[in-house]
Specification:
- By secondary structure, this protein is mostly helical.
- It is 58% helix and 0% strand.
- The radius of gyration is 14 Å and the shape is globular.
- Mean pLDDT is 88; it is low at 1-9.
């Protein structure tokens, strides 16, 4: 079932736009529908090629669907997954462009991440931006 969903995502319009060398903006992906959200979630898998696709998908997912509770949960969970380290670092570098509470939850989780590089970037974000940090129990 997962293989079928992944192959459908790779055949989707978002994949075609995200894989081009000169990246398109997230708004070019069309209306923020549940279908686009689901496609971006599948395309954000670290093993999708070319490697720029999961990075761009993660950024578009966070920017376009950051107010969706399931997306926030998924993105925050990435801070504990070494396979998603690059995407977490990318999102931490773009916290000013993310909606709250996603930005603050992401930074708070990254401060507790097992990866030192992720924790260091999160510390820099807390020092350099105005993102309020929400600490969850």
């Amino acid at each position: 079932m997962i293989l079928i969903a992944a192959s459908l995502a790779l055949a989707g319009p978002a994949y075609d736009l995200l894989k081009v060398r000169d990246a398109v903006g997230c708004d070019a992906l069309g209306e923020a529908t549940p279908a686009l959200r689901d496609e971006l979630l599948l395309l954000a898998a670290p093993d999708v090629l070319p490697s720029a696709v999961p990075m761009r998908a993660a950024l578009c997912l966070a920017q376009r669907f950051g107010d969706d509770a399931s997306v926030r949960s998924t993105v925050v969970d990435w801070t504990a997954d070494p396979a998603h380290r690059g995407q977490v670092l990318l999102l931490l570098g773009n916290t000013d462009g993310l909606r709250d509470p996603l930005a603050s939850e992401l930074v708070a989780a990254a401060l507790l991440a097992g990866d030192e590089r992720v924790r260091a970037r999160a510390r820099r974000v807390t020092e350099q931006t105005s993102v309020p940090i929400i600490v969850t129990p």
